[in-house]
Amino acid sequence: MTAPVEKRTLDSDVTEVQGRYSAGSTLAVPAPALDVPAVVTRQVLRKGETVQSGSVLAEVSGRPVIGLATPFRLYRDLAPGDEGPDVAALQDALRALDLYQGRSDGAYGAGTAGAVKALYSNRGYSVPVDDELVEAVEQAETMLEETLAARPPVVSSTQDDALSDEGQSGAGVSADESMGPDAVDRSAVAAVENSIAEARAELDEARFDALTPFRVAEIVRLPDVAVKVVSAAQVGAELGGGGVTGGESESDDGAASTVEPVGGGDLGTLRVGRPSLVLRVPMASKDGFPAGGEVEVRAITDQSTVVRGVVRQVSEFRQPDAGTPGGLPGYDVTVVFEGTPEFTDGDTLVASGLEAVAPKADGLSVPVVALREDPDGAYVTVVGRGKVAVTVKATGDGYAVVEAEGLSVGDRVVVSGGADTTGAEGGQPVTGSGS
Q1: Among 1, 66, 190, 213, which is most exposed with the fewest C-beta within 10 angstroms?
Q2: Tell me, what's the pLDDT at 431?
């Protein structure tokens, strides 16, 4: 389809652009994998609250479920001696909470175990233990005590010298006769000392193995250091494959109501990611929305509430979205907010750029949907001549005022279709009636 080039006077399409608000993506908090029924025994979080890394999300069957900000989901239990990238990620998360002071070397040692222990004890919970390893420590302690008790009296230095002198004198007096009943076989003493050293080593090893382990079932990954609570299972809720059942929830007005299942046995839902607004900004209004620039945002239904945001990203020029009636070409501008605005996810918002833009303009005009852009800049495709470079002065009411060499009133520009764009650029007419 084509349209004629006209002469128009337009006010610059300056500030107001509509877009859709996103409160961020949601993250389901799964129930921990326990050997006993998973029942919420303590509710910690409520809808609207912020979860920080290291926070207890809930208590399930008497055990805490703790959120940690890690770059990926921790996928296995960890114990002293384990190594891997998951250990390093855990160490980073614990250091951010001022619980771990060592290097993130990926080795689960005493420092990491101590930090995990502090993670639990600082929040009022008993630390994970392995009963078999604790029992092994007790056995090693008993073995050391018994070995020490069997240790014979140490040969005194005087007796040792006497034994040496008697041996050199050749008097034929035995060591037992020379030193009396306290004398011992020094080889036996050495054997006992070796046994004691082995018992001490076994105890040290048992104590290392019994250091605080890491239980992945009690940890939930947070993709950010702070996220919002969307929903949370209440005390008494039983978490299972059919969703959360039982218990009561508290509505916004404080009234109790039956808990609605949060789905799939999940413990709750968190909102992650920064609130944002995506706008399709026309070509002539791009200067009003530069990266880093401020914008004012308000809901269509509530013009009185104005929130300021910052342009985080400006995309490359985009053509009209396929299948979107009335979709316009332009730039996708992403606006982010410092706090959490009181908008609802999916709301249509109006944004006004605060940067100076081009004033009213007049001159040759083409439909905005006829504008294209490539690495060389903006252009239109003219029937019979192909691509013609243009400079956009202003847009408004669906039209753009442009400057271009050789473009005249009455020329026809391609609006949509474009199957014969190559032919048009080669000088062949583009088939189709005008509009």
Answers
A1: 190
A2: 32
